[in-house]
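Researcher: Please generate the 3D structure of the following complex. Treat every line as part of one assembly.
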Amino acid sequence: MACTSDFSGLVRGKGFLSSDLSKRIQNGVGWTPTNVQITCFDSIADSPYGALGDMVLWPDPETRVETMLPDGAPMSFLMGPVTDLDGAPWECCTRSILHNAIETLRAETGLTVKATFEHEFMLSGGRGSRGFTLDGFQERRAFSDALVETLGAAGIEPDSILREYGPDQMEITLPPTDALKAADQATALREITRAVARALDTKATFSPLCAPDIVGNGVHIHFSLWDAEGHPATHDPAGQDGLSPQASAFIAGILRHANGVTALTAPSVLSYERLVPHRWSAGFNNLGAQDREALIRICPVSAREPDARARQFNVEFRAADAAASPYLALAALLSAGTIGLRETLSAPAATTEDLSLLDAKSLADRGLARLPQSLEEAIAAFEADETLRACFPDRMPAIYAAHKRGEIDHVKDLSNEELFAAYAATY
Ligand code: GLU
Ligand code: MG
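Model: Done. Output below.
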């Protein structure tokens, strides 16, 4: 199948015969512009395209996944950019948007980003094992082995897999790699995880929140900066909180544009039930050290030797979830980070306390605020943020906002129970 990860964060595309692979790489497959307005519930949001227009989706051989599921079924797909018939990147192609963000950062600063996505998800059919236990790990051993094997055959080697804290919750992390590849792999990982679970008669869901009273499924995006010579550029032992001036500027850009960024990283109605204090996700627009509720967390480094420390040093953005296309989520971070570098911003000192205990004045004095508390609020912030919007193709923010409003509209009359079920079924 030739695939694109779209505004709904789902992977859609068209199948073709394996024997036609080289032909399809050469000629692409046809794609319909209005498809980008198919919401995660298959309703169609307002589309500027209507029934008009034709696009081409180009399967990129670099992204090829060729693997075998535990039930013996093959799984083969390729991601790729969508262009118009003349080959120009399409305004709503998430992969081209990320590609452009990478190139803008490189052209303006010489820097590149290495990233990885840490995914949490929940499996059905558990018998109530406890978080982080060996017992819980063993309960899912067959699943984990099958997942690692299926990923491995697709050339994706996980860094770790664990039985997370939430009920029947698992977490899997891949090693860091170049930004575009990291997004390709995150996309493949979600698809393969769901397919492996299905083949083993269980169900995996990455829904941001599966029930009101439990922890959510986060997608934490780790990233680091690298200079043009391939040297690590995130760490400076003499810098505030160990950050280099470039990393400080990059982070400050994300903090300044956090509200608009969340529209792209946490883009479901339920995302905002997760992004509240005391869910170990992120509630405020802060940089934090040793704080698993910070929007951006400076991650601990275990290496002792200075060069190794510099290479290990990375930060983690916590207000993302799997309703977001990995391409758009990473593009939002790179774009806001590039703004920070362009404007030579500096990040404030990292917070180290529970911000939910501070009163409104103390927060405001330190430039701290709650993140958006609904998808509508986040979308409105993205629309209002001219500088962030300008990092994306002209019409994309308006089309994206219409998509998300279509999603909001689709769920507005659902009961709480139906809402959770709908998102769990989708993601
Ligand atoms: N489940 C938490 C979230 O929604 C993250 C827990 C952790 O790994 O720190 O982001
Ligand atoms: Mg976790």
